[in-house]
């Protein structure tokens, strides 16, 4: 991105051209020596000062690099390429707003300077401004439709907007134009993995590796694809390989812990524990470790881990809130109130901390205190599902109309009996065939670490992308009940469920759960959904007992006990029945009591 017009003496220009070549070869020490010689010959040469700054940045001295690049800008204030390089430095050091200003000034100087526009778009995508990033990239592609880099960057911007089909098309266009672009191929593989198209993802990731790509992200994404394909040993090895590049990476260590937990490894969190021993001052590692222990139900160990984190690094808001949630999960809501309050006071704008405080206050029997916290969260993000769920419980305790408006069970909890797909004489025949397909996909030994089920298993990837004809037939059968639900519910811009009942819908996830003896779902909501569901493929004999109500789905009772709040609607499962309900509505199940499994399919629906 650094052009070198002949504004410097010839001997300086020759030294700089050689330095650029050495820099491209990674011979940075030699490149720096040549740059310093050039600066000695021509101290006011903007090109020499600027290139020295770029070399210093490559050598890891960002402070000296910034000083030199700013000096070059003072010597040549109209150089668009200098401002673009300055934007690169600012962006790499986390100064996003300053980087954006530098890129935009470069484009003021030269509106057709492609590197600045491309870098600006990438910066905007990374900063969560994918819409403006898309606009910048489309302007580049209007000028040059065969710009492979812009196509790949457009794919990233579209992924950030959850427009996954368009993103895939952009990545494939980039690879048509530049088949050797291993990063674009890796990103396509990552996207396919995210869509639970594991076999296709692995093929693209392997091709990226064959092309010479290396690094943590490649191994991490290969691990996710391998796990989804039930190649667990290989997946775990890939995670270990990813840690070779980033031993303290929280996301990688968390995935390793989840894999080991679902493989019934009793010491599933040892990777995190070892990483903390090597990095005792790492804030995130301690948070991830303690959270994993809590999610696994090891409440005493989790409380100890949060306590140790606070003792070592101080009462950080995430640690206080994590400790509070652990005490709540252990049935000690009264003790949880103080740390939850302190966390929220320290960081009042964080919705995660506000939601935790709301839940704990309700469990502690303090709905009056919870109400203003919940209302503030609702006003900040009206579509967020968790505050809606808390508002319903608080309104119920306080006798407010909002409860019946949000939890109108007669209108919003709707059972459907599915019709057999073409080629099947009955739902019993169809479910029998579907069950055989689903059983083959239940390969874990334990439930996922961060999901609602207990004493059972869940399929590894989303069934939305599954190509099996039985799965496709089931998904197609959902269109009619979803359409009927939408018609019955209607549209009201003032209601959080009805306001979103507009436009097209899509399934945002679909999975199967297989519960064994004692298996159940803890009460939960679906934060990423609009509508949620339960479809019964196979039910054990004990669900027929209307007195015991084993394995029945219940509504209206929150995750942790709240005084005076019990389920208000319960529905008997039976094969062929589908239940649709708002994703913000608390729901769970009673345990099954026989060895015969209970097999369901669930999915979330969102509006586009």
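Q: What amino acid sequence fits the structure above?
A:
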């Amino acid at each position: 991105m650094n052009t070198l017009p002949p504004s410097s003496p010839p001997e300086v220009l020759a030294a700089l051209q050689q330095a650029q070549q050495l820099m491209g070869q990674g011979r940075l020490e030699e490149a720096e020596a040549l740059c310093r010689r050039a600066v000695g010959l021509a101290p006011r040469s903007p090109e020499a000062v600027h290139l020295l700054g770029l070399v210093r940045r490559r050598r890891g001295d960002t402070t000296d690099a910034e000083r030199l690049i700013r000096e070059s800008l003072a010597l040549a204030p109209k150089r668009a390429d200098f401002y673009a390089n300055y934007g690169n430095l600012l962006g790499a050091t986390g100064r996003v707003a300053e980087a954006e200003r530098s890129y935009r000034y470069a484009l003021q100087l030269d509106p057709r300077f492609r590197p600045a526009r491309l870098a600006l778009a990438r910066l905007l995508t990374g900063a969560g401004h994918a819409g403006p990033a898309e606009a910048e990239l489309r302007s580049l592609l209007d000028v040059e439709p065969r710009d492979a880099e812009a196509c790949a960057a457009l794919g990233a911007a579209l992924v950030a907007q959850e427009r996954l089909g368009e993103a895939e098309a952009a990545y494939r266009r980039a690879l048509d134009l530049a088949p050797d672009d291993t990063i674009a191929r890796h990103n396509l593989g990552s996207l396919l993995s995210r869509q639970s198209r594991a076999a296709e993802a692995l093929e693209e990731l392997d091709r990226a590796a064959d092309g010479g790509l290396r690094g943590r992200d490649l191994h991490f994404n290969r691990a996710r694809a391998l796990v989804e394909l039930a190649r667990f040993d290989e997946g775990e090895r890939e995670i270990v390989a990813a840690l070779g590049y980033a031993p303290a990476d929280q996301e990688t260590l968390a995935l390793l812990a989840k894999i080991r937990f679902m493989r019934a490894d009793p010491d599933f969190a040892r990777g995190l524990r070892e990483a903390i021993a090597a990095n005792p001052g790492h804030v995130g590692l301690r948070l991830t470790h303690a959270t994993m222990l809590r999610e696994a139900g090891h409440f005493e160990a989790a409380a100890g881990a949060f306590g140790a984190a606070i003792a070592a690094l101080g009462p950080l808001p995430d640690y206080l809130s994590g400790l509070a949630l652990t005490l709540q999960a252990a049935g000690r809501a009264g003790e949880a109130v103080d740390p939850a309050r302190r966390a929220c006071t320290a960081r009042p704008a964080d919705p995660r901390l506000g939601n935790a405080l709301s839940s704990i206050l309700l469990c502690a029997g303090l709905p009056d205190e919870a109400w203003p916290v919940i209302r503030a969260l609702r006003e900040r993000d009206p579509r967020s599902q968790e505050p809606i769920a808390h508002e319903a419980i608080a309104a119920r305790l306080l006798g407010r109309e909002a409860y019946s408006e949000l939890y109108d069970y007669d209108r919003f909890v709707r059972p459907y009996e599915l019709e057999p797909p073409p080629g099947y004489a009955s739902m019993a025949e169809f479910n029998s065939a579907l069950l055989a397909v689903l059983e083959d996909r239940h390969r874990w030994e334990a439930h996922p670490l961060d999901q609602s089920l207990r004493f059972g298993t869940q399929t590894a990837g989303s069934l939305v992308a599954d190509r099996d004809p039985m799965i496709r037939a089931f998904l197609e059968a959902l269109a009619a009940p979803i359409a009927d639900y939408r018609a019955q519910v209607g549209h009201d811009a003032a209601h959080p469920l009805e306001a979103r009942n507009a436009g097209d819908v899509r399934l945002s996830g679909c999975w199967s759960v297989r519960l064994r003896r004692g298996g159940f779902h803890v009460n939960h909501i679906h934060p990423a959904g609009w509508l949620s569901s339960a479809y019964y493929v196979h039910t054990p004999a004990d669900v027929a007992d209307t007195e015991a109500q084993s394995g029945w789905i219940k509504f209206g009772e929150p995750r942790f006990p709240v005084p005076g709040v019990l389920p208000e609607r319960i529905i008997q499962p039976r094969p062929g029945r589908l239940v649709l309900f708002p994703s913000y509505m608390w729901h769970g199940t009673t345990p099954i009591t026989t060895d015969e499994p209970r097999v369901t399919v669930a999915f979330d629906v969102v509006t586009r």
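Q: And what stands out in the fold?
A: The chain is about 60% helix and 10% strand.
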